User: What shape does this take?
Amino acid sequence: MTAPDETFQPGPTLSRLYPEVRAGGYTRHDGFIEFYTRVNALLEPDSRVLDFGAGRGLWATEPLPALHKKLRAFHERVGEVYGVDVDPVVLENKTLAGAHVITPGEKLSFEDASFDVVIADHVLEHVGEEDAEQVASELLRVLKPGGWFAARTPNKWGMIGIGARAVPNDLHTKVLRKLQPERKAEDVFPVRYSMNTRKHLKRLFPEPNELVVYGHASEPTYFGHAAPAWRMAQFVDRMTPPRLAPTLMIFVKKA
Assistant: This one.
C-alpha cells in the first residue's frame, strides 16, 4: 500500500488564500482531486489502465496531500497499470506493471482494445501538430469499445496556455525555475498546444465517440509563492468565461 506522505505541509500563500487546505491538505478548487476523483469513478477492480506519459511517477515520491496519493494510487486497486513515455525515466516508475519508451508519433506496442482506461495527465500540451492525429488514433485503437480516455491539460486559450506560449520553449526552464524554484529542470518539457482546444478535440476524437470537455480553474500554483500574483490570477479566473478556463478536463468514451 502507498503510505500517506506525512512530510506535506501547505505553503504560507496556499494557507492564507485557501484556509480550508489546513483541513485535509486540499482546496475547494483542487484540480488534482477533480480529475482523479472522476478517473477513479471509471475504474473497476479488473481494469487494465494505460498511463500515457507516465514519467518517473513523481506523485509517488514527492510530498503530496494524503488524499492526492490515495486517489492516484489506483494501481493498488485495479488489474494492471502500464506506462509509456518518450523519456526513458519511465523505466524507473515502480508503480507500473510494465513500462515502454516510445517515439513521438509512432504506433504503441499494444494490441487493439487492450485497455479499459487510458489517462494522460498534463501530457497533451507537449504533442506536436505533426503527431496529434496519430496520437489520438493510437489512444483510441488501444482502448476497448466503451472504454474511456481521460486527460487533464492546459486550455490553449486559457491564462496558462497563453502565458506558456508567450515564452519561447528554450526559456521555459529559466522562467519556471524563477516561478517554481522547487521544480526540477528535467521535469520541464516543450509545449506545443496542438490538442488543447475544443475544436482540436472534436476533430481528433470524432463521433460516434462520446466527447466530454469542461473547463476548470485550480489554485494558481504556477505563480510559485507570490501572493499578489495569486490574487491577480484569482480575479482573472473569476472574470473568465467557462470556455476559457485555464485547464481542460477531457473524457472520451470510445464507441
Observations:
- The first strand starts at residue 48 and ends at 52.
